[in-house]
Design goal:
The protein has 61 residues and is mainly α. It is built from 3 helices and no strands. The chain starts with 15 loop residues before the first helix and ends with a helix. The mean pLDDT is 88.
Amino acid sequence: MPEAELENPYDEDEEPDLHTAWTEGAEAAHTDEDIGPVEDLYDDPNVAYAFLKGYTEVSRP
């Protein structure tokens, strides 16, 4: 069964930082790399949340 493609909920033109963070989170979900505390990756808590949202949505079975 093919894995369903998730759509980034953030508009690339209107919210580029959130869009990029969500994409980075989704990509990080497919690696074994230790990402460390997300608060250390992003200064803006909304961007950190977008990263975690992407990571979490892609990680769900």
